[in-house]
Amino acid sequence: MARLAREHDGVVFAARVDFARESELLDPMLRALRDSGKPFVMTSGTSCLSIDTPQGEWNQQSFAEDDPFDSQLWTRVRMESERLVRASAGTGVRGMVVRPPMIWGNGGGNGQVPWIFQAVPKAGAACYLGHGLNLYTNVHVEDLARVYALALEKGTAGALYHAVAGEVCWRTIAEAVAAVMGCDARSIDHDEMCDLWGKLDAPYRFAVSSRSRAIATVRDLGWAPRHLDLVDDILNGSYRERFGRAGKEREGHVA
C-alpha cells in the first residue's frame, strides 16, 4: 500500500475495514507520502455524527464540518483515523477527510434505500422504525464523486469536507417505496427492524439521527450538488426502474 501511494499522483482511501484496523492501514501510506505535497483523501462518514433515536423520533441537531460533537463509543476509533489523516498536513501531505452520508442514485446506494425495497416481500410492507421521523442526510452518488474530484484538485491540507446535499425522513422514504411496490408503509419496532436488516447493521442505519451540513465543502471547493430529489428518484427514476417490476408483480399477485 505504501509503495502504491508513492507511485501515484494522489490517493483516495475508500477501503471498508474494521474501524479498529483503519489507522494501521493509513499510517504507512501517510508516512510514504511525507513531504510530497500529494493529496490523500480518506473516506469517513457522517455516521460519526449519529444520535440515538430508538423510537424513530425527530432530532433537530445538525452539524457542520468542525462543529463540536460528543461522538459515540463505536465511532471514536474512526474519529482518531480522521485526526491522523488531517494531522498529516504538518508532514507535507495534503491529507483531507470526506464524510459521505447516506448515498443514493442509480437504483443503489450504501444500503438503506435498497434494503427497504428488498424487505417488502418478507415484511409485507415498506417499513420504518417507530415514528419514522429520524433521518440521515443524503447525497447522490454522482454528486459525491464530484466532491472527491474537487478535493483532489484543490482541497486544503488538513480539511474535513461533508458531502451532504438533502434530507428526507425514513417514513417519507418508506411511503415512496410503498407506492412503487404496491404495498402499505408501516411502523415497526426495534426487534422487527433487527430481524429485517440485521442486529448489527440496523441500529446504526435506521435507529439514529445523522444530520449534517456541507458548509466548508460548498465554500472552499465550490461544490454545487445537482441531484436533490431522492423521493422523485424512488417514485419515477432509477429505483422504480430497478424495483418497479417486482412491485407490479406483487400488485398482480395480490389482486
UniProtKB/TrEMBL annotation:
One of its GO terms (molecular function) is aldehyde dehydrogenase (NAD+) activity. Pfam families: Epimerase (PF01370). PANTHER family: NAD(P)-BINDING DOMAIN-CONTAINING PROTEIN-RELATED, PROTEIN YEEZ. It comes from Rhizorhabdus wittichii (strain DSM 6014 / CCUG 31198 / JCM 15750 / NBRC 105917 / EY 4224 / RW1) (Sphingomonas wittichii). Coiled coil: none annotated. This is NAD-dependent epimerase/dehydratase domain-containing protein. InterPro entries: Epimerase_deHydtase, NAD(P)-bd_dom_sf, NAD(P)-dependent_oxidoreduct. It comes from the Bacteria. Residues 22-158 form the NAD-dependent epimerase/dehydratase domain. Transmembrane segments: none annotated.
